[in-house]
Amino acid sequence: MDNGNGYIVFSDLRFRKEALDELKALLGDFKREKGSTEKFFVISADMEKDKVLSRFVDGNPVFIDNIIPLSGILEFSKGDYKAVTDFLLQRLKKNQSFRIEVLNVRSDAGENAKSIEVKIGSALESLGFRADLKAPEAFVYIILSGKTALVGMLDRQDILKERLDEFRHASKGEEKKISRASHKLAEAIELFGIDTSRLKIILDIGAAPGSWSVHFSNLGAKVVAVDNALLDYSKFNGDKHIVVAAEPRFIEQTKELVAKMERKPEVIEIDKIDTARFDILHVRRRALDLSTHLLGSPRQFDLLAIDMNVEPDAAAEAANHYSDLLKEHGYLLLTVKLFDRKARENIRKVSGILEKEFDSIRAKKLPHNRLELTLFATKR
Fold first, then answer.
1. DSSP per residue over 316-367, as a string?
2. Which of 101, 154, 223, 285 is spaced 20 to 30 A from 51 at the CA atom?
3. Residue 12: left (phi > 0), alpha (psi -120 to 50), or beta?
């Protein structure tokens, strides 16, 4: 393989066939090369780099997370990255600023990705190059797998605007600190270009245990969370006023459950909801059974988020059920569970249901989705 026409294609192994079909539609002829893991595979394509990258961005593929050019494939020894440093010396311009990010996929490195970034970056700085994490002239990515290092570079003008950054979370060990649900939501906001400054009040359906509600709250929005299960209220900032609304027959039960929790929000009857006096309102009802009039007037919410463990058509019907509460052009984020793994069939089915109430429907298999997809749409 000529490294000038090699590419690393990021896709979930569970949807590899769909990703290959999309790649065929985007690029036409290409060749699978050696080097494949559950996160990525390697190809070569007889097409200019700029055209490959633009087709990826413009094509909006569902099952391909990212395509990045491959500059070289090197062997390395545990703790010794001189071959990688020497390779970069031949390609970086004199005094060029750079940023290095490493993805460690079951390699023999024996240390974490951050440590490797520091070692290689320090070596380059000692030779006159300048690290710049915010606006580098060259973005260097290194993927370590086994004893092999896949190395590539993007110039500043080549860096993709909608780049689902596999390195940003996975290489830093943040998974223990931030839930998969929070990563998934952050990826959706970035990919679909959601203007977070517009998010004043959110409706979160199927909210428990509350990761999405916490994320929206941290963005400064009020949140109405609907789920029969309790949330982990301790995850919300301490200055947030949290109210739990329950049916009269479940008030005492709810108070008893809340009393055992680390953080004890106020409990009120469901018919006494006042959206002006809370930061977080948790409505304790099954999401598919709730009458929308209990949540107030129509057209008040900026975003409707639905992440429930139900069949795809039931999730889409729930979106339509709550759609009147969304403002015109309000956002929808909908998780579609793929119980039968028929991804494209479910996308068509769900899109057909949503078309009654929504426009601009797009689907994406996000890096932190598992056997599921995320759909985005705007209220008609």
1. HHHHHHHGGGEEEEEEEEEEEE-TT--HHHHHHHHHHHHTTTEEEEEEE--T
2. 101
3. beta
Amino acid identity at 113: A
225-260: pLDDT as tens digits: 999 999 999 999 999 999 999 999 999 999 999 999
Q: Are strands 358-364 and 372-379 parallel, antiparallel or unpaired?
A: antiparallel
CA dihedral 102, 105, 108, 109 (to 10 degrees): 20
User: Under CATH, domain 180-379 is a member of which superfamily?
Assistant: Vaccinia Virus protein VP39 (3.40.50.150)
The whole-model pTM stands at 0.86
Ranges of CATH 3.30.2130.30 domains, the chain? 3-176
Q: Is the dihedral of CA 129, 130, 133, 136 positive or negative?
A: negative
pLDDT in tens, 279-324: 999 999 998 889 998 888 889 999 999 999 999 999 999 999 999 9
CATH 3.40.50.150 in the chain: give the residue spans.
Answer: 180-379
Output the six-digit token pair for 266: 């106020």
> How confident is the model at residue 157, as a pLDDT?
58
